[in-house]
Amino acid sequence: MASIWWVLAAFIGGGCAGVLVMALMFMAGGLPEQSAHTPNLNGLPS
User: Fold this and answer.
1) In CA terms, which of 21, 37, 38, 44 is 20 to 30 Å from 31?
2) Residue 16 CB-density burial (10 A; 0-12 exposed, 13-18 middle, 19+ buried)
3) Where are the alpha helices (DSSP H) in 1-46?
């Protein structure tokens, strides 16, 4: 039974860490724009 509490604590702690990272990325302005042009693999004109 005690190990279930450790799993729950790790799950909640990981979730809080993920939310914190997302909030920090949002406040920092997110990821930079991709500078490389991605090729069109469908063969259709873009």
Assistant:
1) 44
2) exposed
3) 2-28
DSSP-derived 3-state class of residue 40: coil
Report in angstroms the alpha-carbon separations of 5 from 9, 13, 16, 17. Answer: 6, 12, 16, 18
Tokens of 3: 């190990």
pTM score: 0.51
Match 């990981």 to its residue by tokens. Answer: 14
Q: What are 21-37's pLDDT values in tens digits? A: 988 888 888 655 656 67
Q: Name the nearest CA neighbour of 18 among 10, 6, 28.
A: 10
- The number of C-alpha atoms within 13 Å of 14 and in the hemisphere containing its C-beta is 6
How far is the C-alpha of 42 from the C-alpha of 33, rounded, in Å? Answer: 23
